[in-house]
Write a structure and sequence with these properties.
alpha/beta; Helicase, Ruva Protein, domain 3; Rossmann fold; 4-stranded antiparallel sheet; 19 helices; elongated
Length: 558
C-alpha cells in the first residue's frame, strides 16, 4: 500500500482517536489544563465543548491515559440513556456489583454512594467522563447533579467531565438546569487549527509514523486548510485520500491538484476549494469597487464639466442675483428727468497723452458691431444676462464740469475698447423704467468725441428701446402667475420635494435646470404630474394638475 511507498510504518491519518497521535497545539494544551483542573480538590463539573471533529474525544483519551494512579475513572460513550440506565452503566464502569433484575433507581444510587465513600476512605478519586454529552436528557443531568451532592467539607466525592458539541452549552442554559450550570468549575471551547498549526499537524502525524520529510508542499497545506477549515478529522480524511492518489499517480510529493481531487473523492463537492472570484467576499468587494467607481465618475463629471457649460452657469448666477423682476429694479438716476449718458475716454492711471481719436474710433466700431449683433438676436434675455455679467467690473461714477449727475462706464482692466462697448449698451437696456413710465435718453457731445460716435450711441439706445417693448410683452405673459407658496393647500401638499441645484437660461429654448439631481428641459416631467413648462432668467414656470405657478431659481421646496 502507500505506507511503504512513502516510508511510513503505519497509517498516520487514521480517524480513530489514538492519543499517541494527539497534536498538542496551544488550544489543545489549554483545554487539557482545564480538564486537569477539574481533577483537583474542588471537584464538581468540568465542561469541554467544540465543533465536530476538533479532537475532543482524542483529548479525553489522552487524559485517561495519563490519570494518576489513585484515580478510578468511568468513561461513558453513549449517553442516550435514561436516568436508571445511566446509573447502571456507571456501576458497571466502577465495578459495582448490583442485582441486574429488579434494580431500582434508589438501589443503584445507594450502591454508587457506598462506592464513592469507600474510594474516599482509600484516598482514591472517582472520575466520570461522558462523551457526546449534548444527547443527555435534562432529567439525567439532574440525576448527575444529585450524585455530586455527596461531598465532604473540602471536596466532592464524584467529579464529572462533560464533553460535547456546542449544543451542550445551549442545553445548560435551561432554567431547570441552572443549579447544575452553577456547579461547573471550568469551561473551555476547543477551536479549529489555524494555517500554521495545520502544517505542524501534518508534520506531527507523519513524524509519529516515522516519516520525517515534507510530503505535503505549501500549496497542498493551504488547500487542506481552506477545505477543512482547520478541523482535524476532516484533515485526516483528506490527507489519507491525498496520499492514496499520490501513490496511484507515482508522485512523491502531494500538491494542490492532488488535494483537490482527493477532496472530491473523499469529502464531496461541497468541500472543494472555490475560485477566489466565487467567494462571497470577492463578490462584495467587486460590488463596492464598482459603486465607488460610479460615485467617483459622478463627482468628476459634476466638478469638471465642459468649459461652455461652466461659462453659462456663471452668467445665469449673475442674472439670478438681480431682483426678481427687472422691471422692478430702481434706476440709478431719477427717471422723472431726462437721463444724461456721457462716455468719457480716459486712461486708468490718469495719463491724458494718449491718442483720444484712436480710442474714439475703436469705441465707435465696437458700438456699431454691438448694435448689429443685438439687432440679429431674436431673444433679448440672453443679451441681458451676458451684458449684465460683463458690466459688473466696469462701472464707476464720475461728475462732469456742469455738476449734473451723470453715469460713466469705463474699463479698469486691459480689455480692448470693443469689449468696453458691450456693457455700456447692455446697461442702458437693463436700467429700464417701471411699467407706465417713459424714458428719454439724451446724448450730449463732449470734447474729443466725434459726431459719428454720438450717432452710434443714439442708434443703439433707440434699438434698445424697441427691444424693451418686446421684453415687456414677454414678461407680461407670466406676470400673473403666483409663487408655489401662495397656491392652494392641495397644490402645495401634492407637489413633491424639489431642489433646484443649477439654473441655465438660454434664449433659444435650450436652457435647462438641475432639479433633484437630474437635468430637466422645458417640457420635461419632473415627477408624474409635475411639468416644467418654461425656464425664465430668474425663475421657472411649473404646472401641477392643470394649475400653473412659479418658483425662484436655485430654491427648494419640502
Amino acid at each position: 500500500m502507500y505506507t511503504s511507498y512513502f516510508g511510513l510504518e503505519e497509517k498516520p491519518f487514521s480517524i480513530a482517536p489514538n492519543p499517541d497521535y494527539l497534536f498538542m497545539s496551544d488550544r489543545h494544551r489549554e483545554a487539557l489544563n482545564h480538564l486537569t483542573y477539574g481533577l483537583g480538590d474542588t471537584g464538581g463539573f468540568v465542561l469541554l465543548t467544540g465543533e465536530v471533529g476538533t479532537g475532543k474525544t482524542t483529548l479525553s483519551r489522552h487524559l485517561m491515559a495519563n490519570l494518576p494512579e489513585n484515580t478510578q475513572a468511568a468513561f461513558i460513550l453513549n449517553p442516550t440513556l435514561s436516568s436508571q440506565e445511566l446509573l447502571a452503566t456507571l456501576c458497571d464502569e466502577l465495578n459495582i456489583r448490583y442485582r441486574k433484575t429488579g434494580a431500582t433507581l434508589k438501589t443503584l444510587t445507594d450502591k454508587i454512594q457506598q462506592k464513592l465513600l469507600k474510594n474516599h476512605s482509600d484516598d482514591i478519586n472517582t472520575l466520570l467522563i461522558i462523551d457526546e454529552a449534548q444527547h443527555l436528557q435534562p432529567e439525567v443531568l439532574e440525576q448527575l447533579r444529585l450524585l455530586t451532592n455527596l461531598e465532604t467539607n473540602t471536596k466532592k466525592l464524584l467529579q464529572v467531565i462533560l464533553i460535547g458539541q456546542p449544543e451542550l452549552q445551549q442545553l445548560l442554559q435551561r432554567r431547570d438546569l441552572r443549579q447544575l450550570a452553577q456547579r461547573i468549575t471550568a469551561r473551555y471551547h476547543l477551536l479549529p487549527l489555524n494555517r500554521q498549526e495545520v502544517e505542524q499537524y501534518l508534520k506531527h502525524r507523519l513524524s509519529v509514523a516515522k516519516c520525517f520529510r515534507n510530503i505535503f508542499d505549501k500549496s497542498a497545506v493551504s488547500a487542506i486548510h481552506k477545505i477543512c477549515n482547520g478541523i482535524p478529522r476532516l484533515m485526516n480524511l483528506l490527507a489519507e485520500r491525498s496520499l492514496i492518489n499520490a501513490y496511484n499517480t507515482n508522485n512523491a510529493v502531494v500538491n494542490r491538484k492532488i488535494v483537490l481531487q482527493a477532496a472530491h473523492d473523499a469529502l464531496g463537492d461541497e468541500f472543494q476549494v472555490k475560485p477566489w472570484w466565487q467567494h462571497s467576499s470577492a463578490k462584495a468587494s467587486a460590488l463596492v469597487t464598482a459603486l465607488g467607481l460610479v460615485l467617483a465618475l459622478g463627482v468628476w463629471w459634476g466638478a469638471y464639466q465642459p468649459q461652455g457649460v461652466v461659462l453659462e452657469t456663471k452668467v445665469t448666477r449673475a442674472t439670478i442675483n438681480q431682483p426678481d423682476s427687472i422691471a422692478e429694479q430702481e434706476p440709478l438716476v431719477d427717471r422723472e428727468e431726462p437721463t444724461v449718458v456721457t462716455t468719457a475716454l480716459a486712461q486708468a492711471d490718469g495719463d491724458t497723452g494718449n491718442d483720444i481719436n484712436s480710442d474714439t474710433n475703436f469705441l465707435a466700431l465696437a458700438v456699431e458691431q454691438t448694435t448689429q449683433a443685438k439687432a440679429s438676436n431674436a431673444n433679448l434675455e440672453n443679451d441681458l444676462a451676458v451684458a449684465t455679467t460683463k458690466t459688473v467690473s466696469h462701472q464707476a461714477g464720475l461728475t462732469d464740469d456742469k455738476g449734473d449727475t451723470e453715469q460713466y462706464i469705463a474699463s479698469e482692466s486691459r480689455l480692448d475698447d470693443a469689449q468696453i462697448a458691450v456693457p455700456t449698451i447692455a446697461k442702458s437696456s437693463v436700467l429700464k423704467p417701471k411699467k407706465g413710465t417713459s424714458e428719454n435718453f439724451v446724448v450730449k457731445a463732449e470734447a474729443g468725441v466725434s459726431d459719428e460716435l454720438l450717432a452710434s450711441f443714439q442708434s443703439a439706445i433707440e434699438h434698445t428701446k424697441q427691444n424693451d417693448h418686446v421684453r415687456e410683452g414677454v414678461v407680461a405673459d407670466t406676470s400673473e402667475l403666483i409663487p408655489l407658496a401662495q397656491m392652494p393647500t392641495w397644490v402645495q401638499d401634492g407637489v413633491p420635494s424639489l431642489a433646484f441645484e443649477m439654473h441655465l437660461y438660454a434664449s433659444d429654448g435650450q436652457g435647462w435646470v438641475r432639479v433633484n439631481g437630474r437635468d430637466r428641459y422645458e417640457g420635461d416631467y419632473i415627477s408624474r404630474e409635475l411639468l416644467l413648462n418654461e425656464i425664465l432668467p430668474q425663475r421657472v414656470v411649473l404646472s401641477f394638475r392643470g394649475e400653473k405657478f412659479t418658483m425662484s431659481a436655485l430654491s427648494t421646496w419640502h
